[in-house]
Amino acid sequence: MSLKNNHTSLSEDTGARVAVMDLGTNTFHLLIAEPDAENFFKELQHEYVGVKLGEGGINEGTIKPDAYQRGLDTLISFQGIIEQHKVSKVKAIATSALRSASNGQQFIDEVKQYTGIHIETISGDTEAGYIYQGVRASGCLGTETSLIMDIGGGSVEFILTNNHEIFYKQSFEIGAARLMAKFHQTDPIAPHEVTSLNKYLDKQLDPLYSALTNHSISNLIGSSGAFETFAELIELGKNKTFDLKENKTYYFKEEELLKHTNQIIHANHDERAATKGIIPVRVDMIVVASLLTQYVMQKLEVSNVVMSAYSLKEGVLAELFCI
Q: What sign does the dihedral 315-316-319-321 (CA atoms) show?
């Protein structure tokens, strides 16, 4: 397993340097940063590994042995990087997979034993709060009412908000890994599986629809993850490059988003794997993420969709830096 190294630089002043880990169901992220007056934070190093912690066991409530070992090995590697940077504070956040796994606490205890890293398992409500703070820091929230959607591997968070207040937030255990294991049994995904998925979402998301009854939504904001892939695919289709470090936000054209998500839905595994812009950890889960995105757009009649490159880990940074 290789670490994806996006950027590395060591500065002399380490007093305010922090390490944030977002330990998701699919991907483990390590972000080492320090405050920056102009740009919120200065990234010193960002590592991400497609651990697939939920692989094979997400809907059974357990972390399978191979996934367990991948997670442990990754955090041992992360600890070496953290020591290199001499950070002043480390915050490791675990979400849905560890939250719901019967052997999640065992994993947390072993990580502490081997690395000294203390993992904090947060509730879905707390997770949604961090996501809001991260999206807010990206600058894409205005006075109008927006619905933030964060598609994780284990859970999906919805936050109804503007740049001043949160009207509603809730986490649903309908993440891409769970939906894929439950509904994506053939490849390409079959029409009857799509129908079953949509019926399931109708039932599971009923509390969301009730909360939105008296609100008019101006736009849907997709935070990081699959929405980064959608944006990159669209730009690559125009023979343009797409750099997340240069694009904290991205405003989709509805027809382009629907075109590319439809292409993903109708492609098979090999076609998706050969598509430039789809990273390996998303090759299969991007299908249900595309279906979920289209479902929400159609159900709520929202055509304005925005990507925020900031999400949970940036929200944690905002808290640490008192933004």
A: negative
